[in-house]
């Protein structure tokens, strides 16, 4: 582990460390890094130590915990599938240059993850984790992170009307619901309602 400050100079705050062996000199750390076939660059907040991004496809365990605390459930508007039943998705796909960073990752249940990639829906994410979804019919839906845990610049929660996604789905996917879809689901049981409620 080689902590770097600005412009590629080793940090004076923490000595380089060889995992399993302990601290080593900055020169030795540079030599090892130069000779390595691959390495992960991890960016973090120097004040808090919080991991901001990693130059690899898979997020670190720390990033997964942070995003789990931020997202709580699937980030598709109205979905409450808990994060442990969700995939961690790159908002901008890695193959399109999307970084493995907290402002480019979000939890989506398998159904909405598939919908994002194959259902004609688009999504953008701002630096605070707010997702703006665009439906195949061009309507936009905003989904703010439900949790303000560990977010210093969080704004005061506002009351917002939820769009009627049942109507949106019926319009976008008439073949799924037919002409008689009334916006209600017949499989809604008390157990399903409890499962969607995080507390």
What does this structure look like?
With 199 residues, this protein is an alpha+beta fold. Among the domains are: 6-39, no CATH class; 55-157, no CATH class. It has helices at 26-35, 61-71, 110-118, 165-172, 174-177, 190-196; strands at 17-18, 22-23, 42-44, 51-54, 86-90, 100-101, 105-109, 122-125, 131-134, 140-143. A three-stranded antiparallel sheet has the order 3-4-6, with no helix packed on it. A three-stranded antiparallel sheet has the order 8-9-10, with no helix packed on it. It has a two-stranded antiparallel ribbon with strand order 1-2. Strand 1 and strand 2 (22-23) form a beta hairpin. It starts with 16 loop residues before the first strand and ends with a helix.
Please describe the structure with a list of short key phrases separated by commas or semicolons:
single chain, 3-stranded antiparallel sheet, elongated, 199 residues, alpha+beta
Order of strands, widest sheet? 3-4-6
Q: How many helices?
A: 6
Mean pLDDT: 74
Number of strands: 10
Coarse structural class: alpha+beta
The rounded Rg comes to: 21 Å
Described by the principal axes of the CA atoms, the overall outline is elongated
Instruction: Give the H and E element order.
Output: EEHEEHEEEHEEEHHH
Strand coverage percent = 15-25%
Unreliable stretches = 183-188
Distance between the termini: 39 Å
Helix content: 10-25%
Biggest sheet, open or closed, and with what strands and sense?
A: 3 strands, antiparallel
